[in-house]
Amino acid sequence: MNRLILEEKDFILPERCLITGRRFRQLVDVIKCPVGKICKAGLLNGKRGTAEVIEVNDDSILFDVKLNEEPPEPSKVRLAIAMQRPQTFSKVLHIATTMGVKEILFFHSFKVEKSYWQSPRIQFEKYRDDLIEALEQSGDTVFPEIKFCSKFKEFTEGVLQEFSSGTQMIFGDPGASGDAHEFNNQPVTLLVGPEGGFTDYETSKLRELGAQGVTLGNRILRTEYALCALLGKLV
Amino acid sequence: MNRLILEEKDFILPERCLITGRRFRQLVDVIKCPVGKICKAGLLNGKRGTAEVIEVNDDSILFDVKLNEEPPEPSKVRLAIAMQRPQTFSKVLHIATTMGVKEILFFHSFKVEKSYWQSPRIQFEKYRDDLIEALEQSGDTVFPEIKFCSKFKEFTEGVLQEFSSGTQMIFGDPGASGDAHEFNNQPVTLLVGPEGGFTDYETSKLRELGAQGVTLGNRILRTEYALCALLGKLV
């Protein structure tokens, strides 16, 4: 936890927060929070600042909170990624959130197993805590907006066009010669395929819609690391 | 497994291999290998090519092997990274190996817990299989060379100079303005700190030796993702 993320419900007075539960345990066990310690803090989807420890009790910490700094600039990258197996889904959320992506769209594609769409992990209540932890890690305060499109046809017939509006679409393509570097700090929609890759039909469809292939070199990376390396080039 | 990695001991004839154990199970259970199927293959630390399934038995597969392609170009990046907790150590090896880094040096630094140096995971016999799996993933055949330096003093008084010879040293520094992009495809030694970062003394020491700070933006990433994003910029 590099920054304590506060929620409206933590405030017992305008500038005073009472923290219990998971965050209390981590503050006490891992970070050590004696009275007087000043921690980095931020209000979920709001401003950043500091929280000073006022009182440490058996199961709660009382903080004096000052928030007057804007959250970091969002990334210009939007991420449209094929639905992944549940464990990879969580990693994708963590990576994209910690790297500042604020718009994420999971879509269906031929090589996505249908069961992935039934996983409880893709319910907001299940992944909300993962997002909070990603914000705590990165020091950001703003949730990404997460959308789902479980039909490839709908995805390519309207959903993607709307999602990517005003950006250049690019996708990882081992055969391409262009490098994602060229799009550094540009408004880009990054398209990432499923574990087994896009089918030829899918890539031709994406190209038709204006997406450009970029290479990641001639080695094959796990989806989460390919995503992270591509975002590294772009942000 | 995107490429079957063969070892000298698998060869029962000059162009014939008998595969058992973990690789057999994965070939049969995950990849499905009927007689006649042609798989990508490569000899550990040697050439790449194909392996055709000749016979599938209860606990082994017989392949006809043709190897005539060079392994992919190694990355120009050398990686000097502070020793990590055992789980992160394995992730670092996986990421660096799949991204083509061939020289990796783990060094001691103030915020590295001493116990990390006692972990059995940093023994070659323990991480050898992780390296094989990374090669199977990426399609490469060549092991990285892995070195250790458990004293920061020794590291900065000779070991790092020798390791980084002929390259520009760079390190992730939240306060820096330079971007790692500038060193794309250049001979670089990438220095990565421990989980809690380098101390001021350590960064000043690294600067003295010619290392240049580069930024990854104003968000804080987990070590493995920071590494992956930086390598994404460099390779």
What's the topology here?
The structure is a homodimer of 235-residue chains.
Chain A: E1 4-6, E2 11-13, E3 16-19, H1 21-31, E4 38-43, E5 48-56, E6 61-69, E7 77-82, H2 86-98, E8 103-107, H3 124-138, E9 145-149, H4 152-163, E10 168-172, E11 188-192, H5 200-208, E12 212-214, H6 223-234
Parallel strand pairs in A: 1-4, 7-8, 7-11, 8-9, 10-11, 10-12
Antiparallel strand pairs in A: 2-3, 3-6, 4-5, 5-6
Low-confidence stretches of chain A: none
Shape of chain A: elongated
**Chain pair with largest interface:** A-B, 29 and 29 residues
Helical fraction of chain A? 25-40%
Mean of residue pLDDT of chain A? 95
Count of alpha and pi helical runs of chain A:
6
- Give the quaternary arrangement of the chains: homodimer
Q: How far apart, in Å, are the first and last alpha carbons of chain A?
A: 22 Å
Strand content of chain A: 25-35%
Quantity of strands of chain A, as a count: 12
Structural class of chain A: alpha/beta
Order of helices and strands of chain A: EEEHEEEEHEHEHEEHEH
User: Strand arrangement, largest sheet of chain A?
Assistant: 1-4-5-6-3-2
> Main sheet of chain A?
6 strands, mixed
Radius of gyration of chain A, whole Å: 20 Å
